[in-house]
């Protein structure tokens, strides 16, 4: 039985809806549904996937570590693209002469097309009237739509809705304190394999007592570990990060 099916059946046995689980675990409903459907690509990153999976499994009374191992086998880490391309032939080792022909043909076709368009455009518009008068009505009509009536697109990214911090203790244990928008969200010790998700509207301040044991992700961006084993680190995270 796959990971998602085990999660879904455990939730249904307890008579819980996704909305109820979202309220208790603070994991968004669409991510819960993605876990139950094995659509791990919907999650914002591997750190999020492991953290959400452990948290959801523990909430349902399942073995979070076992499901996390199954997730690792189901979604193995992929090699970077640069490593995959190492065995490709080098450019200077193999370059057939016929590769140059399409480039010359394409260049020739572009030149011919430009000359033809210039000729047709001159015949259609004709010479300008003497005295520098206005362009013919047909030309004015072609120019108007390009300047007016086109909807503008600002291209601005949507405004962040807040800050979301995932804390994943990878090895050993660590004490930590989490303050969100001047309200203490958590203070205590987490052991290896435990994960927590914290949310705030503007800012989260995290203080850890063993930075080398803790792995973080903020607003979908994986940050890795904050420091060395045994190092105490305090850091602020805002809604604009990620």
How would you portray this structure in words?
The chain is an alpha+beta fold. Among the domains are: 3-74, Orthogonal Bundle (434 Repressor (Amino-terminal Domain)), CATH 1.10.260; 163-238. The chain contains eight helices and eight strands. It has helices at 3-13, 18-25, 29-36, 46-59, 64-74, 81-84, 100-125, 137-143, and strands spanning 163-169, 173-180, 183-191, 195-200, 203-208, 214-218, 221-225, 233-238. The strands form two sheets. The protein has a four-stranded antiparallel sheet with strand order 4-1-6-7, covered by helices on one side. A four-stranded antiparallel sheet has the order 3-2-5-8, with no helix packed on it. Helix 4 packs antiparallel against helix 5.
């Amino acid at each position: 039985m796959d990971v998602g099916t085990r999660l879904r059946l455990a939730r249904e046995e307890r008579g819980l809806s996704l909305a109820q689980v979202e309220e208790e675990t603070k994991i968004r409903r669409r991510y819960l549904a993605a876990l139950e459907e094995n659509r791990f690509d919907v999650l914002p990153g591997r750190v999020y996937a492991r953290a959400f999976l452990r948290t959801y499994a523990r909430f349902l009374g399942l073995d979070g570590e076992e499901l996390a191992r199954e997730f690792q086998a189901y979604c193995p880490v992929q090699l970077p693209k640069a490593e995959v391309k190492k065995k490709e032939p080098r450019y200077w080792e193999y370059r057939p002469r016929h590769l140059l022909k399409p480039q010359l043909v394409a260049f020739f076709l572009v030149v011919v097309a430009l000359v033809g368009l210039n000729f047709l455009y001159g015949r259609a518009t004709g010479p300008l009237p003497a005295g520098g008068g206005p362009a013919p009505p047909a030309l004015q009509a072609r120019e108007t739509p390009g300047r007016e009536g086109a909807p503008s697109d600002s291209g601005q990214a949507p405004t962040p809705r807040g800050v979301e911090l995932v804390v994943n203790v990878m090895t050993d244990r660590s004490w930590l304190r989490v303050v969100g928008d001047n309200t203490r969200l958590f203070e205590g010790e987490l052991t290896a394999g435990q994960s927590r998700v914290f949310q705030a509207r503007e800012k989260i301040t995290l203080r850890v007592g063993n930075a080398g044991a803790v792995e973080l992700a903020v607003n979908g961006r994986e940050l890795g570990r904050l420091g060395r084993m045994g190092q105490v680190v305090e850091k602020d995270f805002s809604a604009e990060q990620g």
